């Protein structure tokens, strides 16, 4: 039976957003994976994603990001483009590479809001989406600056979600 972490019978839409294109490890000044900044293309991808989500009427209640630089920069661009002072960007270590789906769901259960954005990395975001829909063999590929939306009738948990849409920057 799926494990639940109750949000008080409130449904939630999770916007799983992969960071945009980043510079490679080993380029001048980049000595660790955590320090990889967005490339110019990545900055453009992030802006296009923000504008596309805005055009679709997406208004997030919460936005969490991995602590890695490329994810933080992607999220910062989203917040800047949306120009919503009430939307605070929060860092969540569980979105760093290697985060565990169950722990992330427990974290989300403590959050308020019906629409929650999570900016992170592959394959972790795809693994989380597959875990949510109850199919660990699902071949979900979230492109750089791509978005997967999973809805849950209550708190996110294993097998409790439904994949609503998956888009890549080609859609923007």
Summarize the topology.
Layout: E1 12-18, H1 40-55, E2 62-65, H2 69-82, E3 89-91, H3 101-109, E4 115-120, H4 124-133, E5 147-152, E6 161-167
Parallel strand pairs: 1-4, 2-3, 2-4
Antiparallel strand pairs: 1-5, 5-6
Features:
single chain, 172 residues, alpha/beta, Rossmann fold, 6-stranded mixed β-sheet, 6 strands, globular
How would you characterize the overall build of this protein?
By secondary structure, this protein is of the alpha/beta class. It has one domain (12-171): Phosphoglycerate mutase-like (Rossmann fold, 3-Layer(aba) Sandwich). 28% of the residues lie in helices and 19% in strands. It contains four helices and six strands, in the order βαβαβαβαββ. Strands 3-2-4-1-5-6 form a six-stranded mixed sheet, with helices on both faces. α2 links the parallel β2 (62-65) and β3 (89-91). The protein is globular, with a radius of gyration of 15 Å.
């Amino acid at each position: 039976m799926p494990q639940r972490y109750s949000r008080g019978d409130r449904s939630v839409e999770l916007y799983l957003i992969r960071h945009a294109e980043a510079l490679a490890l080993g380029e001048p000044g980049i000595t660790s994976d955590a320090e990889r900044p967005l490339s110019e293309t990545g900055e453009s991808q992030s802006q296009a994603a923000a504008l596309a989500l805005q055009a679709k009427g997406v208004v997030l209640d919460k936005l969490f990001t991995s602590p890695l630089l490329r994810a933080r920069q992607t999220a910062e661009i989203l917040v800047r483009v949306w120009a919503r002072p009430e939307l605070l960007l929060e860092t969540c270590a569980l979105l760093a590479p290697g985060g565990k789906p169950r722990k992330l769901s427990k974290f989300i259960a403590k959050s308020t809001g019906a629409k929650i954005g999570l900016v992170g990395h592959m394959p972790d975001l795809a693994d989380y989406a597959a875990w949510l829909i109850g199919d660990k063999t699902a071949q979900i590929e979230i492109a750089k600056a791509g978005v997967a939306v999973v809805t849950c009738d209550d708190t996110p948990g294993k097998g409790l979600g439904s994949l609503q849409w998956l888009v890549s920057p080609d859609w923007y």
